[in-house]
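Build the 3D complex.
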Amino acid sequence: MSRILLIILILLVLPGCRDQKIVEELGFIHTIGYELIEEGENSGKLEVTISLPVAETLKQQTITTVVETSKESRIFLSKKTDKNLVSGQVRSILIGEKLAEKGVWDLIDTFYRDPVSRPTVKLSIVKSNPKQLLSKDYPEYKMVDTVIENLLKKEARLNTIPEMDIHKFAKDYLDDAIDPIAPIILQSEDGIMSDGIGLFSGDQLKTTIPAIQARIFFLLTGEFKEGDLLIKNEEEKVLFSFLTNKRSIDVTLGDKEEIDVKLSIDFKGFLLEYQGNKDITNEKEIEALENYIQENIENQIRDILETMKEHQIDNLGLGKYLKQKMDYQTWKNLDWPKTIDRVNVTPSVTVKIIDTGMVK
Amino acid sequence: MQTEKFKPFYLFFITYMTQTSIVLFMLPNMIANYFGYNGWLMIIPISVFAMIQIGLIAGIYYFNKGSSIFQTIETSFSKVNIIAKPLYLCLSIFWSVLSITVAKQYVHVMKFLYFPQTNIQWFVLLTLILTYYLVTSGIVTIAHVSTLFFFLSAPMIFLLIYFVPDFSFLQFSTFVFNEHNDFYGGMIELYTAFLGFEVTLFMFPYIKKEKKVFKYVFWGHLYTTLLYLSVTIFCYGFNSFQQLNYQVYPVINLLQYIEFDFIERLDSGFFILFYLKLIITITMYIWISLVTFKRVVMWSAQRSAFALLVVGYLVTLPFVTKNELTSLLSLLAKVQILISIFLPLLVLTIIFLKRRRKHV
Amino acid sequence: MYINKNLSVHVKDRLDYCDDLVIRTFPELKIEVLYFGHLVGEEELKNNILQPFSNTNEEEVKIILRRKQYQQEEDINLMVKGVLEGKALIIYQNSLAYAVDIYVPKTRSVTPAEIETVIVGSKEAFIEDIGTNLSMIRRRIKSDCLKVLSYNIGTITQTKMYLLYIEGITSPILVKGLQEKINNIDTKGVNDLNQIIQYLDKKPLSVFPQYFTTERPDVSTSKLLEGRVLCLMDGSPYSLSTPTNFFEFFQSPDDYNQRWLLGTLSRLLRFAALFITLIASAFYVAVSMFHYEIIPVQLLHEFIQSRSKVPFNPVIEALIIEGIIELLREAGARLPSKIGQTIGIVGGIVIGTAAVEAGFTSNVLIIVVSVSAISSFVVPHIVMTASLRITRFFFIILASIWGFFGIIFGFVIILIHLCRLKNLGEYYLKPISPLSLKDIKDTIIRAPYQFFKK
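Done.
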């Protein structure tokens, strides 16, 4: 009996597996860019750009094609390369601003559904054209796509842009209590730079928050762990370095339709740089400075909330806190985030300056 | 020859390894679908119900004083063999079909995720060869092997630590079982995830007599419950509820998210490591099928195992697509639920009738 | 057979054409002495034969022959056997025979162990002479519980074998089991204990060694104390112990002689080495043929650049390099140690570097293969190393067919096989399967001695 099985085993081994993907025969797509074409004969179609490393020379190859839907792009793209294109090593997706305004879920769903591509693929919105961003020759960079990837990583760590991957985007998109966000990058004269946060309503890009305010936004989400904060007006300029940050959100449901949210942020840090007319050796003056910073931050928070209310979006996830206080039916009737107008947010920020630096 | 026996603590490994199978990978989605918000709570009552079933089996073991349940059945009435023998044959074939369907479902998922172009039958046949090899080694070796496989596959649970930073209690919300559908159907489905403990019913003559033999089955069952709970809770905390509803294999999504510096996307490795558990699950079912079969047909273990595997294979041969397999498995699992509930009850009734007859 | 007359002729007849047979006659005493010169000691010959018989007369001979060391033999077979075993046979008056044991074999002296070397601990190793080997063990176990049973193996060679065990520790079933197996060996002759093992193997088709051999007396004694049966064979500088389990092959006396923490760590290191040596090359093949997605992006670029120059399939590439490693190893084993080092340099540095530069293999593979080769040398026992080497090829081929699934498939087969293996009724994978937490203290790890059961 065991001999029969041995023979069957050998027979099974012989045909082998047809799923061989030998590394040097593959074209590892590293970055994919999508943009909507609005003019010309291809109006309404997608412009898909991919970048992949060329194995022999380790340089970046960029291929572009114009297709009706994102799903058929693979067929057209693979015609233009000698390699078998695979999506298992895709690291970032760049979406053009115009496309983002129209809606991106279809695109993301394709990646999310594909068992080969990873859920950690970074997602970002490009203000200029992704094709130009990827194919422009930067003499100082060997491969632009890896530079973009590293830039996103670094900037996310410094809290100027969110670290947004497919999983997180899908999580926030599908959740009814929060709207997704995405980082924005920009092609500038001397390279690539990050440029704040894009706020989505559903899967459509609505508005953006500039990089300066982005850190305030992360203070609100509670993700801000380290980094510098710049606060300035005409007279004064304060550079503040964070140490600890505590954030709490209190929701009180009013009698009628009113919802009160108390947003308290409590943080401590060092004063790194100060330009202004206060004497920072004086305790009282420091207190005044603290108050000044508090007020400034509170104002910025109000600005962000105003923007959100204006577009009826909730990218902070206030809905999640509301959910905790409500029963299911009330929550469903609320039709969040369209009713974000009903929420009164009172920010209260406490700042504590621990030290003012090495010199007086 | 005296039958070789194993120590009762192996029952822990056997119970746990037989209970968990591919269903673990879909469990959080299944629970979210059926029970809605905070559906993981349902694991506890269902687990308790399964525990009552184990209690029944433990009772039979206690009354039987360790002798086989077949003996109990066959010595109950004078002409019981006329009913019992065909019943045995049916049960035996049923279990063989069930175990191969379980194998096929795992193999299907593996093929879909990692070997999309390979024919599913090859993997099924390979699995059957391994099963044949293991099941003909005898129950003592199976117990040993399941222990070994337990220690090789169990450390995977520590991967959950990776998700602690991204875990958020906010995701749970305070709603309980809202957005559920088909609550009772869900309970049955969830109960099938716990099936596997009933194989201990057939092991009585092979267990070394000690105090509190069934303690270990309870521990094994509790371990399974704990695993299910922790995986589901982590899924609820890591994904948004709607997202969990959207994913078919949430646990694979979790695994895909894990990235280390030196290695990424080990989900294929981990998923295939789970094959060890699958081998034990199907071997145990084939084994009970074999034990039952040998009550009717006086063939050698090798030949009977071969025959059963061939029959099971041929019966499941036409079922190939995911939907076919899922519906077949859920049908078979429902039958198995009935067996797992009524077989112990039947045996208990026989025992009580016998006792009464003795007293009278 | 009892022959009274012409005994000398009969004996000589049996030992016909043995030109190394020495025959000394003392005609005036009617004495003939027969012995093999190379089996007897000069001193003993002088004391027992030459001196007593050269200064005597016919009357005194009878009195001398009554001395204790002269043993009268009546069976001619025993006489011949005695001569072959290094006794001197004294034939008196052509009808009476006396044997005197003056056996001193010419062997090398005890030398340090060469294969199973240790850093801390005894350096001595067994030699070819069974008596010396036995004395090394007796010197270590001064107890009357150490029992020695004697056998002769081989219908022609009649090689002496001792079966040792400690009464009260070793289970009598084991002794009986091994005795039976030894008695069942049917062969003309064996040259070494390692050949005996292959006669004893229950599953000759298994790749794993089923008996534990060692050239170290200290290891042998510890095996005896653990309740195992030990075999020694004349002409073989090894001892055999059984029942064997898998984990014995990963233990070294160093674990016990050094502090427990170091012992535990080096044991864990060896198990890690076991996995590396089995899996490393197979993992490379699986990744480069099936699971490209697990390569981190930093490594990916270098890897594909290196791979793009290689004209072969990854599996062919891996098999070629593994084959070269095997060639180097075999060449190193056959050559004298001084030249052997040159082979290492030529193979390791020259071929390795040249192969990568010529685009013959990828540099990642060179690293992988060398790491797995080094890991295989970490396993202290050469027999197990050889088994692992073979198993490695099995894994490479499986990985080339089904990727990770192939590796796991191979694992399942090997683990089931190991779980099924039994040796004299004891499981091969003992403390792990069947699981016994008590014994794990001294297999996977090496706990402090205070934790061992008294």
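Chain A has two domains: 23-209, 210-360.
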